[in-house]
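BUG: 3D viewer hangs when loading the predicted structure for this chain

Environment: internal workstation, default settings.
Expected: structure renders.
Actual: progress bar stalls at 90%.

Input used:
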Amino acid sequence: MMNLNFSGTTNVFKLLAKPSLCLPHATVSTFNEIPSPLEKAFEGRGKKVDIRAVVLDKDDCFAYPDTNEVYAAYTERFRQLQKEYPGRRLLIVSNTAGATTYDRDGRMAKELESVTGVSVLPHRVKKPGCGDEIMAHFKAHPDAGVTHPSQIAIVGDRLLTDMMLANMMGSWGLWIKDGVKPLNEKSAFSKLEQRLGPFLLARGYQAPDPQSPFE
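Structure tokens produced before the viewer hung:
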């Protein structure tokens, strides 16, 4: 089944007015390089960062694309992240597993939850347009301690979905630049993003800093 993303197609036009929307606040090469504590990734931006929950992409982030398990080399860091953000504080938001226009019976989401032990968000709108559904999830689970989007870090491999989601929400974005899949095997869109990010940064664009609830 084709995995169309109307949210991505529609929201990409926002980049014409504001190209910085697709830029990350911090970048690492692979999932294993996510710092501990995660706030370290955003040091040096002159703002106090209070990350209470983490939203993880799946494909080419912690899993090989089209698989429903943690990539073996990342297992230790994944389990460590679960300890750092226990329970509802860690959430998987994927445009495959849990995306109700693609994973219609929820089977992929249930399988991924069973394998990882992490909740998978069922969402009607695909990234980057599902920010309201993410915030509704945390509002429904106050034990996560999230009261504002600036308390969330979005971790993923795609600029036009994951990082754009972070900036549209007012959250922090951590780009997994290289991911699992070798560059020569990545999609044309992923290859384009590998050039787009450095191109915009070299021209002085920066991701907008999230505003805390006290600003």
